[in-house]
Amino acid sequence: MSDQAVAGHVPHEVHHEELGFWRKYVFSTDHKVIGIQYAVTGLLFLLFGFSLMMLMRWQLAYPGAALPLIGQILGEARMPGGTMLPEFYNELGAMHGTIMVFLGVVPLAVGGFGNFVLPLQIGAPDMSFPRINMVSYWCLFLGGITMLGSFLVPGGAAQSGWTSYAPLSVIAGTGQTWWLIGMIFLITSSLLGALNFITTTIQLRAKGLTFMRFPFFVWAQFVTAFLLLLAFPPLEAAGVMQLMDRVAGTSFFMPSGLVVSGQALTNAGGGNPLLWQHLFWFLAHPEVYVLILPGMGIVAEIIANNTRKPLWGYRSMVYSLIFLGFMSFIVWAHHMFMTGMGTAMAAFFQTTTMIISIPSVVILTALIISLWGGSIRFNTPMLFAVAFLPMFGIGGLTGLPLGLNIADIPLHDTYYVIAHFHYVVAPGTIFALMAGIYYWYPKATGRKMNETLGKIHFVGSLICMNVIFMPMFIIGLAGVSRRLFDAGAAYAFAQPTMHWNAVSSWGAWIMALFQLPFIFNFFWSIRKGEAVGENPWQATTIEWSAPSPPPHGNFLGAPEAYRGPYEYSVPGAPKDFVAQYEA
Amino acid sequence: MDIPYTVVARRDTGLTNGKIGIWLFLASEVMLFGALFASYILIRTGAPTWPRGDTILDVPLATLNTIVLISSSVTMVMAWASLMRHRFGTFRIYMGATILLGLVFLVVKYFEYSHHFRLGELPSHNNFLAIYFTLTGLHGLHVIGGMAVNAYFWGPGAKLWKTNPVWFTNRVEHSGLFWHFVDLVWIFLFPTLYLL
What we know:
The structure holds two protein chains of two kinds. By secondary structure, chain A is mostly helical. Helix content of chain A is about 60%, strand content about 0%.
């Protein structure tokens, strides 16, 4: 060990050499740098995915109208004369879903917050496998590049929806092959990340940090990692089989006697298109919980901190989380009620679906009761966290009819479904992620983000989110399919609802404007934000004992946990919080 | 900065990081191959006719390959056991044998594949051949991956033995766990594809 210890550093942390630019910021093995890389990548892809949607919203609001300027930039192959081609609309739809889920929310929620916050919250010096962690980020990066590159191949990007249902996806153009290769990169990335998170959580906990002393966020990431680890491989298998179908001409998902555009296909046949749906949803239902659980974890941290109260029902929340993780593997076929699976199977899957709503309700209820009697501080993170509760609530409750076989049949694949899951993910999870960014920004940079800009961002986003998605319930209940290029012009009885499309579109475009204060704030505060100490929110959990920003190796001394995570307002204590890390 | 518990086990869990990591990785591999086996069952039960494996595939060659892979699992354990007894020389011999047996497996597989290709029995021919080539191909990639890791520990990676023998032994054990898994997948593949 080196004797040249800088004052204040314990000896075993100082014998690392200064790294060059590339090793320090690009190919870094430091979980904090990787976390920020993930988060920035995720935010950029969220913006890109949102841009795809804003283009689609033009076509839906004003079907067939020429889009000025942007229409010309996108060229004759996509928007001749500024009018969108149906093929291009399908590309946008498929890629919006894929990018938002796999390259936007998951990298930000799991890769970004998981990498940055989880090791700090459990008092670890880094992740257990730092190099695998780096590989995980670069796999995501390659996957993202592949997805972006697919827009430029002949015929454009994948057009078969983010679900890539066979046989449509098997006979689709080259973009679909790129989509599959991109997905294999993204799956590898998730796998490497997941095994790292689980090992880190089990092995690198600080002394005294037992499982029931974990902050709720750590639990959320821990369960999420198991979902990623076990649910993604079946999609990888399905991806390999679809790639075989497309490249080697096999017929895993191709039924016999398929006729396309009046011509019988020459493949061997005998495959099963439903097999793809089963394998896809076996991943994609747990994926729903991968999208929501980290958000719940973030909201729980922020609510406890800003109500200055312990979380109400911490243990029941943790047990609900674990139960939810298990159950999420046996509900997938509620996405497939339309396939005619028979009443026995449908009864099974609608029962499990109703059961899985219970732990979600338990967690949400516990969070709402946590607000009761608190002297709430309404700072920007808290505003986003509190808004998460009703928004996720709307998303969750409107999901119940979709989980019931009979009610699902008229609602399936309508705009109602779009509204339902966007309420869960957009004003739900993304609000939680925004809350997390405002909350942990001081830890990453040593400075707070501007509160006024944050509140403008919040109010604008909250209003616009509802303006975007509430009309879709109305259009969806009128029965309009979610995948139509003409927004539903063929539905004579749904015409009275069509004007809502323009409302929704304007909501989306105005919401883009309300993201500008956030983008400005994000960069401006790095240098100009209010400088803060290590614990600006007077929080209790271990990450706040590290300097802001934490050095390589995170903590000045080995942290230790002496009590549960949320000891706020303890009677008789000198301050209104007793930190987990103070003896 | 050093990550704790890479070499010595954490006391309350009794495990090193690598041990947990490799088991988690194997858990995900079980899901990967599990999904493929499930797909095999679904496609086969839905097919009006399905050829018996031994009418198309070469059972004696596959039996030979099964023996080769099981032997390689034995030599893998011996390689690890040699390190536990601090006999680096014998480790090199056994690890070398493991890699060579893996190579023998791949050569036999090459002859099987090229035989089918010559007869025009391509993956697109029917779904039996499709699942056969997908499953054995993916398994073959795992064999190559395992051989690459083993070759690293046989060659350049072995430097670690001089500086940190316990860590090196652990790493060989983890690579062995993966190798046994690859072997185990074949033990399921062989009867499923060749005999049933």
